[in-house]
Design a protein that fits this description.
2 copies of one chain form a homodimer. Chain A is an alpha+beta fold and 138 residues long. Chain A has helices at 8-16, 45-54, 130-134; strands at 26-31, 37-43, 58-61, 66-69, 78-85, 91-98, 113-116, 119-122. Strand 5 of chain A pairs antiparallel with strand 7 of chain B.
Amino acid sequence: MTYSAPPPEKIKALCNTIRFDQNGLISAIAQAPNGDILMLAWMNEDAVAETLATGKVCYWSRSRQKLWRKGETSGQQQKLIEARLDCDRDAILLIVEQTGVACHTGRRSCFYHRVTPDGLEDTTSPEVSPEVLYGAKT
Amino acid sequence: MTYSAPPPEKIKALCNTIRFDQNGLISAIAQAPNGDILMLAWMNEDAVAETLATGKVCYWSRSRQKLWRKGETSGQQQKLIEARLDCDRDAILLIVEQTGVACHTGRRSCFYHRVTPDGLEDTTSPEVSPEVLYGAKT
C-alpha cells in the first residue's frame, strides 16, 4: 500500500480538527506494517502537516524544541504508509516503512524493557551501535 | 502466553525507574496480540502498579482525574499479556486480551479516522452501540 497525500487545503482542514494539548502536541505511535510498535513520539501541527504533505515522518522534539525530521542525522527514516487519528483526535497512528532501526539505542523498536516476575528484562539487543548511527564522538 | 506479576517490591522498584511527566503520567499503548493498536491512554504510578500487580489494565482518566479500571462500567476489560517500557522509560506498551471493544464509540480500535487524499475516512463501524456499553440515557 502506498500513501497518497491530501492537497494542502485538506491537510489544513484536517489539522484544524486535531485536539492538540496545552503544549500544542499530540502523541504519535509509529508501527511497522507487520504490527510491531517501533516508537512513541510527539507532533505539533507543523510536524503533522509536513508528515502528511511529504509522506516522510517528522516529529516534534520536546527536548530540542524543534522539528525532528526522523532520520535526518541517523539516516533511519520513516516513510509513511498510512496515518490514522483516534476517536477523540488527540493521538495519531503512523504505519511506516522504517529504514534500519527506530530506536536511538540501535534497536529496531524502542519498547524492549519487558516486565518479568524478576523485574525488567531486555527483549532485544542493538542491531547497530549508536556511534555508527550518530557518528563517533572524538 | 500468560502474564506473571512481579512481587510488590519489584513493582515498586520498577515504578521508581519510570520517568513520569510533570503531571505524573506516562503514555500507555494497548495492542492486541495480532498487532492491532486498540487505544492510547495515560497511566500514573498507581495505575501502573495496579495493572502490573493484578494483570487487569487500569489507566488514569485525565478528564475524570481518577483511576480508570478499564471495563468497570462497560464490561470491556483488558487482561494483560505482556508489558514493555520504552528506551527512555516514559511510555509503556501493553499487549492485552480485549474483551469486546476498546473504543467508547463501540469500535474495536480507537484509531479509525484514516487520512485519505479526500480527508478523513472511517475505517470501521461500531460493533456495539455506546448505549448498550454504558447504559441508555433516559
